[in-house]
Amino acid sequence: MLASRVMTAEALADLLETLVNIPSVTGNEATIAEHVVSRLRMRGGGEIMRSGNAVVWRGPQADRPLIVLAGHLDTVPPNGNATASRRDGKLFGLGATDMKAGVAVMLALLESLDPESLRFDLACVFYDAEEGPAEGNGLKRLMGEMPWLTKAALAILLEPTDNRIELGCNGVMNVEVTVRGKSAHSARPWTGVNAIEVASEWIQRVTRTRVRKVQLHGVEYAETLQVTTLRAGRARNVVPDELVANLNYRFTPDMSIEEAEAKLRALVPLAFEFRIVDRAPSGRACGDDPLVKDFIARFKPELAGKQGWTDVARFTAAGVPAFNFGPGLPELCHQAGEYCPIGNLEPAHRMLAEFLKAGS
Q1: Measured between alpha carbons, how far is residue 135 from residues 146, 270, 277, 278 in Å?
Q2: pLDDT tens digits, residue range 70-122?
Q3: Of 17, 29, 74, 159, which residue is the catalytic one?
Q4: Helix (H/G/I), strand (E/B), else coil: 155
């Protein structure tokens, strides 16, 4: 039996620094996965399962409700921030906030708690490829290979929330809109049709789409629509015969993926081509779930809606109540100056440990 021990803020910061210094850009998570396996083997106990670059730890099963803690190992590509550094109470570096801080807390929980003394059965999922296309997401693969994950009473995603509870998440859809014209020599433009001119009025209109705010379970979500890429033209002296715009649509948890698609299609003229590149459903806000209410009542964290997409959506689609809770700062995700406040690590660890312990 593993004896429970105190995990200090300094130990948590050291663990986070170690993780940040292991490169793990999407598709290259093998080294960090091996590091996680090595630490889990050192702690002893439980079952360690591998699937590609993902690692799942499952504790003793004692007919208690199952809690799943989950966090992704991968990061976006570096932007001059590949190496960890500390200053002014902050730990800087790629993935420090998104979401190796959450992974560090997960590992620390396994290294400091006795699973047999908990009031829940416990599993921890360290998965790959979250930052890439939805089809390659490691958690999606794991839930297919290990269907017992979908029987959990609660899943907690240690995504960056600044130690708030962020309920649910917005859905996301990327659509390529193609506008056709007719190419011509730029010296004789009247012999062609400029695709940019054809699209210009629509581009102006869609880029001015206003943010729509929605209140659900007492928290706010924002529906947004942005043109994120735009390409046209093949040469400096040729009238462009094609313009392709990518629409990035973030829809709120009160909309199904079908409703979101219909709303987006209605904004695009029928003469333009409409192709869905990728899409992921929104995550249900589970503020009415008994275990979520228990966590909120115990610690009284600030509540918010999750503006970005997270794998809370994957769990809630499978019928598992879930929420986001982690020490990183959501506004710093994917930024060159990304950091995690060192002072956020110990409270996140402590609250989760107290929630999991029997009789607490």
Answers
A1: 17, 28, 11, 8
A2: 999 999 999 999 999 999 999 999 999 999 999 999 999 999 999 888 999 99
A3: 74
A4: strand
Which residue in the list 29, 98, 121, 130 is annotated as catalytic? Answer: 130
Cis peptide bond N-terminal to 99, omega within 30: yes
Beta strands 171-180 and 90-92, pairing class: unpaired
Which parts of the chain are beta strand (E)?
A: 47-51, 54-58, 66-72, 85-87, 90-92, 121-127, 154-157, 165-167, 171-180, 212-216, 219-232, 242-251, 273-280, 303-305, 322-324, 339-341
Beta strand pairing call for 165-167 and 322-324: antiparallel
Q: Which helix (H) or strand (E) holds 35?
A: helix 30-43
Q: Is 23 exposed, middle or buried (0-12, 13-18, 19+ CB in 10 A)?
A: middle
What confidence tens digit (pLDDT) does each residue in 136-153 have? Answer: 899 999 999 999 999 999
Which pLDDT tens digit goes with each residue over 167-215?
A: 999 999 999 999 999 999 999 999 999 999 999 999 999 999 999 999 9
Catalytic residue check, 278: no
Q: Name the residue with tokens 């869905």.
A: 276
- Asked whether the beta carbons of 94 and 335 are under 8 A apart, the reply is no
Q: Is 74 a catalytic residue?
A: yes
Report phi then psi at 98, rounded to 5. -125, 95
DSSP 283: B
